[in-house]
Design a protein that fits this description.
The chain is an alpha+beta fold and 737 residues long. The protein contains 17 helices and 31 strands. The strands form seven sheets. The chain has a seven-stranded parallel beta sheet with strand order 14-15-13-16-18-19-20, sandwiched between helices. It has a six-stranded mixed beta sheet with strand order 28-25-30-23-1-31. The chain has a five-stranded antiparallel beta sheet with strand order 2-24-29-26-27. Strand 9 (201-202) and strand 10 (208-215) form a beta hairpin. The radius of gyration is 27 Å and the shape is globular.
């Protein structure tokens, strides 16, 4: 964009927001079931739970505790959230939610006996009618606790003697009970000739995890332990091994007009950065995590070059290299141990050290296997906790696979279950980045603008869309070689360039994009920068007459589209963005005004105007609530003034990013035949259980008005017609959350 066309975005002040009272409502209907027959079913379930308890309690780590663990099932249409009060009033504690209808609960033995008696009263006398909303009580079996990937491994490696596993305990046990159970389970592991791989550790919510090397034959016995919630094979982080590299040299001169000190900063969590001396000022801090013995710097150097220069291959013919960011070099990769538990500790240490300097952390590494999606991954959750606590953003690679070596077409690759994103790309508060091919190559199964043949795709956790965005990267041939083009080139350790591929090198492109945008928004608000980034993404597909099914499929390939900071960063005469940050609670809705100028309402033709809405929510998170993991979302709707000046809803019929309970609500719609003036975005907060009426949930909003005829200077007209109601953002200060 020419400098003459670079305009500051406009700020929506609180005076342009109308607050509307909202009263939460719940309507309960009778189920119309036979209480005697249904009560007998509930009673039998409780009897089965008691029988299993008596059978397995010998040697169980909770055998000496006054506690029963079992599963509660609700009927279709009911939710654990909706029945929370009844469940807890009946003496059951909700420890974890598998999905909206299935919960793992605990009770004392005396309360369990009381529960059996009260179910009997319901069965015999049709009293305590709340039990009609309980479908059943069931054992929480050892088979359910084993991750699907673990079961597959056990089936395929029957000749192996031992396996490295992680056992997560039932969440929300009391500290005293959990400590005793950890000790007892550790003793059990030693009795079966297993070995603790490290001291037991806790997740950020206090849930204990034991990592151990155990005999394969002992998995079922360990899974039957009442204190165990989930067992999975220990995951190790890996980086794609380079192959077919062709290094070449180049000049290293930084554009002397660039003020290095003023550049935004990104923390690169990787193997280490080794830049030539001419570029070393772009990496002002080198840091290594505790108990990290280092790693070769190849991967981290390439990642850092993508953060700093974006597509450095596009600059090689220039006299000077133009950087856009600086990098904090955070070495978290070890030569020997990169297990999930070890990486959690190193990443946490890096965030604690550098979150006061930067709010953007790039993580270009994943475990090898795809997510299962029914449970948020351990690392995905831990990244979310850090983002929520420190108000930072992780930009995360979607992960890589090698299906191109055995599949002959891109369609075949995309249909393979092994192409699904890999931990920690399922983190819900982060920005997960995939790769699309940036240039055509005759031998590539992926053409220009198509998903790269190594890039993992969605869906993510609980069916949510992933990746969030894509960026241009290299392609890869079936023999794993990498053709050279401007999007494959990275910087190599000590100086020089080479070609490589992987989502490792597109995530940092987006991390740098986010840094660029954070440097121009008020108070460097990273949530607002994220909303601005999503708002300006460019779609690589046609949305004309698109079906909901097609939109969902595309969303799991490309997310919201390709990152385009050159579009997001500034308004222009023909494209104007309105920005706002705020918060909502359960009792208030907001109507946020923005302006469409008269000259645009008078434009002739069809579909003269496009409005794009992006609202990012910063919701509470709770891993123990299963698919109800995110505690809130904000729904947005655009309301235009029709030809008669009447305010009418105008959301598109189909969009791939208007999903409940996601962190982002994003859509575009085109218009013709409307009135100028104050259009509105209506914002409404929806929450899940555990959120109080007065809890304020932050959001960031971007509204973009675009003249598709490219003939009107709508920016100047908006400024003139609104007479200072909306200020350029360089004049605005907002309160840091």
């Amino acid at each position: 964009m020419d400098n003459d066309n670079q305009k500051q975005h406009l700020w929506i002040p609180f005076e342009e927001v109308q607050e509307i009272p909202k009263k939460p409502m719940k309507i309960t209907e009778e189920r119309g079931i036979d209480h005697s027959e249904h009560g007998s079913k509930l009673s039998q379930g409780l009897l089965d739970i008691m029988s299993a308890y008596e059978k397995f309690k010998a040697g169980d780590s909770l055998s000496d505790e006054d506690i029963m663990v079992f599963k509660l099932v609700l009927p279709e249409g009911e939710t654990v959230a909706g029945q929370q009060k009844f469940i807890e009033d009946e003496g059951m504690k909700i420890n974890a939610v598998k999905d909206s209808r299935h919960a793992i609960v605990t009770s004392s033995k005396s309360m369990f006996d009381r529960l059996r008696g009260r179910v009997g009263t319901y069965k015999d006398q049709n009293k305590l009618k709340g039990y009609q909303y309980i479908e059943g009580f069931e054992r929480y079996t050892g088979d359910e606790k084993q991750a699907s990937s673990l079961k597959r491994y056990l089936d395929q490696h029957k000749e192996d003697f031992s396996i490295d596993i992680q056992m997560m305990f039932i969440p929300h046990l009391s500290k005293e009970i959990q400590l005793k159970a950890v000790t007892k389970l550790g003793e059990k592991i030693r009795r079966i000739e297993g070995k603790l791989q490290r001291e037991p550790y806790e997740l950020s919510d206090g849930t204990a995890v034991i990592r151990a090397l155990v005999p394969m034959s002992s998995i079922s016995d360990l899974a039957d332990d009442a204190a165990v919630y989930r067992i999975e094979q220990t995951a190790f982080f890996q980086i794609m091994t380079p192959s077919g590299l062709s290094p070449f040299s180049g000049a290293f001169k930084i554009d002397p007009t660039i003020d290095i000190d003023s550049l935004p900063t990104v923390a690169v969590l990787d193997t280490g950065v080794d830049f030539p001396v001419q570029l070393e000022e772009l990496v002002p801090i080198h840091w290594e995590a505790t108990n990290c013995n280092g790693h070769e710097h190849y991967h981290g150097t390439g990642v850092a070059s993508k953060v700093i220069f974006s597509h450095i291959g596009l600059q090689l013919t220039n006299e000077y290299l133009v950087p856009r960011a600086k990098v904090i070099d955070c070495k978290i990769y070890d030569q020997h141990n990169n297990s999930v538990d070890a990486m959690i500790e190193r990443i946490r240490e890096a965030v604690e050290n550098f979150s006061s300097i930067t709010s953007i952390f790039n993580l270009s590494s994943n475990i090898q296997r795809p997510i299962e999606g029914d449970e948020l991954s351990i690392m995905g959750y831990e990244l979310d906790v850090l983002m929520s606590k420190f108000k930072i953003k992780f930009v995360i690679s979607a992960g890589n696979h090698e299906l191109v070596t055995c599949c002959s077409t891109l369609e075949e690759i995309l249909e393979d279950d092994d192409a699904r994103i890999a931990e920690p790309a399922d983190a819900m508060l982060g920005i997960t980045v995939g790769s699309v091919v940036g240039a055509n190559h005759a031998q590539s199964v992926s053409k220009l603008n198509e998903v790269a043949p190594y890039s993992r795709i969605g869906p993510g956790f609980a069916g949510f869309y992933k990746p969030d965005l894509v960026a241009f990267g290299a392609t890869q041939y079936s023999d794993k070689s990498i053709p050279r083009d401007p999007f494959s080139i990275i910087l190599s350790p000590g100086g020089g360039f080479l070609s490589d591929c992987g989502t490792s090198y597109t995530a940092p492109v987006v991390a740098g994009d986010l840094a660029e945008l954070s440097s121009i928004v008020p108070d460097n608000d990273v949530l607002l920068a994220q909303a601005l980034l999503y708002n300006g993404t460019q779609q690589l597909w046609s949305t004309k007459k698109i079906s909901k099914e097609e939109a969902e499929y595309i969303g799991n390939l490309y997310g919201r589209g390709i990152s385009a900071p050159h579009i997001s960063k500034y308004s222009s005469p023909h494209r104007v963005s309105f920005l706002r940050t705020g918060s909502l609670n359960r009792l208030t809705k907001q109507r946020v005004k923005f302006h469409v100028p008269t000259v645009q309402a008078q434009a002739s033709g069809n579909n003269t105007t496009r409005v794009t809405i992006t609202c990012i929510t910063d919701p509470p998170i709770d891993k123990t609530k299963g698919s109800d993991y995110l505690g809130a979302y904000v729904r947005a709707s655009v309301h235009k003034l029709d030809k008669n000046g009447k305010n009418v809803g105008a959301n598109p019929k189909v969009s791939d990013n208007m999903n409940k309970w996601d962190t982002c609500y994003h859509f575009s719609n085109t218009f013709s035949g409307f009135s100028a003036g104050s259009w509105e975005v209506w914002l409404e907060l929806f929450t899940r259980w555990g959120i109080e009426n007065d809890d304020e949930i932050p959001y960031a909003l971007v509204v973009t008005v675009e003249d598709l005829t490219q003939t009107n200077n709508i920016y100047s007209e908006i400024i003139r017609e609104t007479a200072g109601r909306f200020q350029p953002i360089n004049n605005v200060r907002i309160k840091v959350r």
